[in-house]
Amino acid sequence: MTRVAVLGARGRMGSTSVEAIEAADDLDLVAAVDKDDAIEALTESGAEAALVFTTPDVAMDQVIWCVERGIHVVIGTSGFDDEKIARLRELAADHEGIGILVVPNFSIGAVLMMRFAAVAAPFFESVEIIEMHHPDKVDAPSGTAVRTAEMIGAARREAGSAPLPDATTSDPDGARGAKVDGIPVHAVRARGFIASQEVLFGDPGEIFGIRHDSSTRESFMPGVVAALRGVTARPGVTVGLDTVLGLTD
Q1: What pLDDT was estimated at residue 79?
Q2: Residue 134 is assigned to a ligand binding site
Q3: N or C of the chain: less Cβ packing under 10 Å?
Q4: Is 105 annotated as a binding residue?
């Protein structure tokens, strides 16, 4: 049994995760902490791993607090960019044996979508990402879209692909979207969505699309449970569920 604490336990993802952890035979929920609770409950309860679903303004400090006390961490909070991940690597180097797993998306279907998109990326001239979420989401583009763009960009560089064609010279309002690793990313925020993403590839005469939709937060729970099961065996910093699911070494 792995003794687990949840930070952000009364939020949308945190509360659903609490239920999934309680239902797992090999995980033991020992602390459910939210913004009005003392984080010291983690050490008092003997937590071995913490699941972080708090807001970006406090998540990094909470991760540091956990790692410094020998608690493995699974990070579900968005906004852990290259700079923050570099800080995590420095932190992990000073705390040997502690695992930090940064997960842009816990949906196994979304993880496969990102992997398939990276495989397809060098074969097409054009590629763009459209991500669609509920309007209560505070960050844009989503962590999933950023991670997808990074994987696509890396795959295209490794293959020696040409830059994406785009004749746009005037876009004062940013209609062409954000550029992440050279890949256009468009963020939609509309009531009715939970989390959706489509990756569009184009070549002369054809369009190829890969799309994933999550309609309930329960769709993320198999990934949450897998991450908590896997983090204690993976010291250092790991980004994404790929290695946990056996998709990469």
Answers
A1: 82
A2: yes
A3: C
A4: yes
pLDDT of residue 248: 79
Q: What is the DSSP letter of 54?
A: S
Within 10 angstroms of residue 41's Cβ, the number of other Cβ atoms is 15
CA gap 103, 33 in Å, rounded: 20
Q: Dihedral through CA 75, CA 80, CA 83, CA 87, nearest 10?
A: -20
Q: Which residues contact 184 (CB under 8 A, 6 or more apart)?
A: 128, 129, 164, 166, 176, 177, 178
- Cα gap 52→111, rounded to integer Å: 19
What totals of helices (H) and strands (E) does the chain contain, helices first? 7, 11
pLDDT at 143 over 90: no
Residue 144, marked binder: yes
**Is 78 assigned to a binding site?**
yes
pTM of the model: 0.84
Tell me what pLDDT residue 162 has.
Answer: 96
Answer yes or no: is 8 a known binding residue.
Answer: yes
- Residue 29, token pair as written in the block: 């929920």
Q: Which domains does the chain have, with CATH numbers?
A: 2-102+218-239 (3.40.50.720), 108-215 (3.30.360.10)
Measure the CA–CA gap between 69 and 129, rounded to whole angstroms. Answer: 39
pLDDT in tens, 6-59: 999 999 899 999 999 999 999 999 999 999 899 999 999 999 999 999 998 999
